[in-house]
From TrEMBL, chain A:
CDD domains referenced in this protein's UniProt entry, alphabetically: ABC_Carb_Monos_I, ABC_Carb_Monos_II
Source species of the chain: Cryobacterium glucosi
Pfam families named among the record's database cross-references: ABC_tran
InterPro entries cross-referenced by the UniProt entry: AAA+_ATPase, ABC_carbohydrate_import_ATPase, ABC_transporter-like_ATP-bd, ABC_transporter-like_CS, L-arabinose_ABC_transporter, P-loop_NTPase
Domain of life: Bacteria
One of the record's GO molecular function terms: ATP binding
Record-given protein name: ATP-binding cassette domain-containing protein
Record's keyword annotation contains Membrane: yes
Domain ABC transporter: 6-243, 262-508
Keyword Translocase belongs to the record: yes
Keywords: ATP-binding, Cell membrane, Membrane, Nucleotide-binding, Repeat, Sugar transport, Translocase, Transport
Automatic annotation (TrEMBL), chain B:
Pfam families for the chain: BPD_transp_2
Protein name as catalogued: Xylose transport system permease protein XylH
Subcellular location: Cell membrane
Organism: Cryobacterium glucosi
Topological type in the membrane: Multi-pass membrane protein
Source lineage: Bacteria, Bacillati, Actinomycetota, Actinomycetes, Micrococcales
Length: 509, 395
């Protein structure tokens, strides 16, 4: 067969009057990797849900042609039956089942309801070999890291004789090594004739792996770029995505660094379950007023654990060490105490630890500083509304009103709610853990602007991030962490990605 | 900066529809049974009984909605009602406690029971389902020990009045009706309207969004008609049941607590996302603990009420009350996973069950069928709610 494997023509979809997709056209060549880029809320996920039958035929406008024939999927089962498999950002594996059981879940090797375990495990083993995962098929999924779980998902897709594999932000939760492995695998599958659509915010990866890229903005197709062409640069994709030139990825910064605000000395923390394991190892650092300090470390290096153990002992056991604020030692044994001492910590997992997703913007913004809005335990609801509305404007949270449910906001706007919540506590020191994870380029730029404003207001800001260009772009000073130890401290202007990576991978001598 | 303020009204209406959906269901059920019973459902005596017979379930539902918003469940309240009822009966009958001392003792016993269960749930970390399932057995057993298998009756009138008495008609009669009841109804209406106007004035002063005048007028109008109509009916019987006053105070107090206080907000925060609440400095363990202490106190009050109404304590008192209370809360729109629910919803849910009970009894439907029908109503109410949420959920 020749011609494109998939054509989506003039796809339109609206949600009670709000247009999410407006005559989007997408053509995917057989045996290629096709990237889809766009800001959050641009309509990428909606488009993929139309394609995979989550939104059934009839609930959208336009036509879908798969392998030259018109397709009318009424459910995910329909699209899987012809070989379209979607792997979502949040993995959908059952933790207490084995790898083999997960691969064949819903598709069991069974006769009259009785499972043939030998066949299941044998086939699973060969699928695992295909995706390059060296694990026993009987291993429970909860024992695997996120990277390996991702591979199990792909093995599961292969078991369904996938022709078109859709990956939604596949590397969002992976470290560099696992990401590399995954991208290699996608290339390898391309060699075997499997077409992939990959949605990603990480343009470097798109640049590396995609043959063509379609950019979607505000529910419309902006352009499709041949990535082997001469002008297929990252800057061009960004320009298409945001509809404007980003002269720089980072807003200009003019630091005015004042006195030391926070000093942490000889900080140690042990794993909460495996109490013999030292997770944070004798860490000492300082942060000054008006300063943005970056923490660079690979996943599992102990960056988050360091911040959380300081923030009211939210992580770890047998924590020792001393914390000084403005030169006086303070106690931060509970979250409440930390907040009262002017420390804020915005978590890396905003959905799990950061927000009440069924609550509206108002209750989330006020959540960590309710006491300041209350007298004798009674909340001044009017003032609370005003405060939330004020933050909605200041942080440019895009929502109809502060009564909007946070779970329905885009990632970037959710992050702005989290930041509002912590800024409202009136902190002197803010720990921001992966503040731009999973959010689009435009919102990232806004968040960097907010960080600059906070520093300009004399606050000390600590940013933990896996993205080295980001750390180099927004920090004044960077600490590198490896295996729970601070392995280096450099001025951002003197550091390079390479020099940081060197420190971040420094092992114990 | 881009701001989009004018769209505030639409989501509000949507929320209101959900809230009023159950109220509409209550009205439909009342009208339905009024027709089926050929007008007997709303005879003054029956309306009075509807209140006095369901008061303890409504009191329990108020405590239960707090428990369920926090993401827990309490299966023990029926047994606690029985045990506290036994304690209060012993106190008045055998120890000669005056009524107020017996009530106080009952509330304290309820609080201790709540603290016991709260300790295991909040600080030891055992799921509430297990702790209160154990409590259901423990306190039923203790009730049997206290009553040694028999019953205690012959309680003083001052005590039984709590569940089965009326406010004295101190203002005399007006055309054969109790003046005090009519006056209370009128005062309530005036207070309600004044409160609405005051809130509106504050909102205007602070330039905050508010509902339209028509919306407010319609809402207040319906409320005034409902209150006056209830007062009219009750005044034609024996006047205002004492327990109705208790209930009104509880409904107002707990609505205020959940909506306006830090503690109430923390309860919603814990149910909405426990981890986020923890990381925001909420003392989640203590909040959980007090949620159960509160449930215990209200179960104690329900125990007093049911004992007073029955005029004595029996070991089998309070059986299945926990299920009635839980059903009321869920019919009233609370979410199984926590974080959502209102006191008013739970009360309306409880009344739906109460009207069903009474209507079916008047029609002399067999008790077995009554149970089955109530079960179906619970199922359908929650299914309707889930269906609604899905439709309004969008993407």
């Amino acid at each position: 067969m020749n011609g494109p494997i998939l054509r989506m023509i003039d796809i339109g979809k609206d949600f009670s009057g709000v247009k999410a997709l407006d005559s989007v056209t997408l053509e995917v060549e057989r045996g290629k990797v096709h990237g889809i880029c766009g800001e959050n809320g641009a309509g990428k996920s909606t488009l993929m849900k139309v394609l995979s039958g989550v939104y059934p035929h009839g609930s959208y406008d336009g036509t879908i042609e798969f392998e030259g024939e018109e397709a009318q999927f009424r459910s995910i089962n329909d699209s899987e039956a012809v070989g379209i498999v979607i792997i979502h950002q949040e993995l959908a594996l059952s933790p207490y089942l084995s790898i083999a059981e997960n691969i064949f879940l819903g598709n069991e090797n069974a006769t009259r309801g009785v499972i043939d375990w030998n066949k299941t495990n044998l086939e699973a083993a060969s699928l695992l070999a295909r995706v390059g995962l060296d694990e026993n098929p009987a291993t429970k999924v909860l024992e695997l890291g996120v990277g390996k779980q991702q591979l199990v998902e792909i093995a599961k897709a292969l078991s369904k004789r996938v022709k078109l594999l859709i990956l939604d932000e596949p590397t969002a939760a992976l470290n560099d090594e696992d990401s590399d492995h995954l991208l290699d695998l996608i290339e390898h599958l391309r060699g075997q004739g499997i077409t992939s659509i990959i949605i990603s915010h990480k343009l470097k990866e798109i640049r590396r792996i995609a043959d063509t890229v379609t950019v979607i903005r505000d529910g419309k197709t902006i352009e499709t770029i041949d990535m082997h062409g001469p002008d297929a640069t990252q800057a061009r994709i960004i320009r298409s995505m945001v509809g404007r030139d980003l002269n720089s990825m980072f807003p200009p910064r003019d630091p005015k660094i004042g006195a030391e605000i926070l000093r942490v000395e000889d900080w140690n923390a042990y794993h909460p379950v495996d109490t013999g394991r030292k997770i944070v190892d004798n860490a000492s650092f300082t942060v000054h007023a008006g300063e943005v300090v970056g923490f660079a470390g690979l996943m599992g290096a102990g960056r988050t654990e360091l911040a959380m153990s300081i923030f009211g002992r939210s992580y770890g056991t047998n924590i020792t060490g001393r914390v000084f604020k403005n030169g006086t030692e303070i106690s931060v044994r509970t979250v409440d105490e930390a907040i009262r001492n002017g420390i804020a910590y915005a978590t890396e997992d905003r959905k799990k630890y950061g927000l009440n997703l069924i609550g509206d913007i108002t209750v989330n913004v006020s959540a960590a500083a309710l006491a300041t809005l209350a007298r004798f335990g009674v909340i001044d609801r009017h003032r609370e509304y005003k405060v939330a509305d004020d933050y909605r404007r200041r942080m440019n949270i895009k929502a109809p009103s502060v009564s909007s449910i946070t779970g329905q906001l885009s990632g970037g706007n959710q992050q702005k709610v989290v930041l509002s919540k912590w800024v409202f506590t009136g902190p002197d020191v803010l720990f921001l853990d992966e503040p731009t994870r999973g959010i689009d380029v435009g919102a990232k730029y806004e968040i960097y602007g907010i960080i600059n404003e906070l520093a300009a207001a004399g606050k000390a800001v600590v940013v933990i991030s896996s993205e080295l260009p980001e750390l180099l772009g927004i920090s004044d000073r960077i600490y590198a962490i490896s295996e729970g130890r601070i392995t280096g401290e450099v001025a951002a202007k003197d550091a390079t990605q390479e020099s940081l990576m060197h420190l971040m991978t420094a092992g114990k001598d | 900066m881009t701001t989009t303020t004018p769209a505030t009204r639409k989501p509000r209406l949507a929320i209101n529809f959900r809230q009023y959906g159950i109220l509409a269901a209550l009205v439909v059920i009342i009208v339905l049974f009024e027709v089926l019973t050929k007008g007997r459902l709303l005879l003054p005596g029956n309306v009075n009984n509807l209140i006095q017979q369901n008061a303890y379930v409504l009191i329990l539902a108020i405590g239960m909605v707090v428990v369920i918003i926090a993401g827990h469940i309490d299966l023990s309240v029926g047994s606690v009602v029985a045990m506290v009822g036994a304690v209060s009966a012993i106190a008045t009958n055998q120890w000669g406690f005056p009524w107020w001392a017996a009530v106080l003792l009952a509330l304290v016993v309820g609080a201790v029971v709540g603290a016991w269960q709260g300790f295991w749930i909040a600080f030891v970390g055992i799921p509430a389902f297990i702790v209160t399932l154990a409590g259901m057995l423990i306190f039923r057993g203790l009730t049997l020990v206290l009553l040694t298998g028999g019953t205690i009756s012959g309680l003083p009138d001052s005590f039984t009045a709590i569940g089965a008495g009326w406010l004295p008609g101190v203002l005399g009669e007006l055309g054969g009706r109790d003046t005090l009841t009519l006056a209370l109804g009128a005062i309530t209406c005036i207070a309600l309207v004044a409160q609405q106007l005051r809130t509106r004035a504050t909102l205007r002063r602070l330039e905050l969004p508010m509902e339209s005048v028509v919306q407010m007028a319609v809402k207040s109008g319906i409320a005034v008609i409902a209150i006056m109509w209830l007062a009219w009916l009750l005044s034609g019987y024996r006047g205002t049941p004492i327990i109705l006053i208790v209930l009104a105070v509880l409904i107002l107090g707990y609505t205020f607590m959940l909506n306006q206080t830090v503690f109430g907000r923390h309860v919603y925060a814990i149910g909405g996302n426990l981890f986020a609440a923890m990381m925001s400095g909420v003392k989640t363990k203590w909040v959980n603990f007090y949620v159960f202490v509160n449930m215990g106190v209200l179960a104690g009050l329900a125990g007093v009420d049911s004992t007073a109404r029955a005029g004595g304590a029996v070991a089998s008192a309070g059986q299945n009350y926990e299920l009635d209370a839980i059903a009321a809360v869920f019919i009233g729109g609370a979410a199984v996973q926590g974080g959502v629910g209102t006191v008013v919803g739970a009360i309306v849910g409880g009344l739906v069950m109460g009207v069903l009970n009474m209507g079916l009894s008047i029609l002399s439907v067999d008790a077995a069928w009554q149970m089955a029908i109530k079960g179906l109503v619970l199922l359908l109410a929650v299914a309707f709610d889930i269906f609604n949420k899905r439709r309004s959920g969008g993407r």
